[in-house]
Amino acid sequence: MQFDHEEHSLGFILNTTTSLIKRVMSAHMKQHDLTPEQFGVLMQLRMRDGISQKKLAEVMYKDQPTVGKIIEKLESKGWVRREADPADRRAFVLRLTDEASRKQNELQALSDQMYIQAMEGVTQEEFKELIRIINKINRNLVK
Known about the structure:
Organism: Paenibacillus mucilaginosus 3016
Number of domains: 1
GO molecular function: DNA binding; DNA-binding transcription factor activity
Domain HTH marR-type: 1-139
Radius of gyration: 17 Å
Protein name: MarR family transcriptional regulator
Largest sheet: 2 strands, antiparallel
Strand content: 5-15%
CATH architecture: Orthogonal Bundle
Strand order of the largest sheet: 1-2
CATH topology: Arc Repressor Mutant, subunit A
Keywords: DNA-binding, Transcription, Transcription regulation
Number of strands: 2
C-alpha cells in the first residue's frame, strides 16, 4: 500500500483528533476538577475494580510512574483509594471511593455529550468500522 503523506498522514490525523477530543473533554470535565487522563483512569476503575496499578498502566498503555501520579491526584481529591492486595501483601489494588461511584453516571453523561458532538454526521456503521480499523492498527503496533 502506498501513502500520500501530505493528504493522509495517519499519525497527524490521529494526533489532531486526540488533541481535539482532549480539549473538548477538558472543558466538560473542568466543572469536576478532572483532567481527561484522570477521567480515563476513573472509567477504567469503574470497569476493573480492584486492578493493580501495574495492570492499569498496561491496560492504558501508559508507564507506571505516569499512572502513579494520576492515582495520587485522584486520591488527594477523594476519588480513589488504595487497598492492600489480599493475594500479595506487598502490592495494592485500586478502588473507587463512594464519592467517585456516585459521580460515575454524571461523568459518563458528560463524556457521552462530547462523543455525540464528535460523531455528528457519522453513521453507526461508519463508527463501528472506524473502531475496528483503529483496533487492528493498534494490534499491529503492539506485536
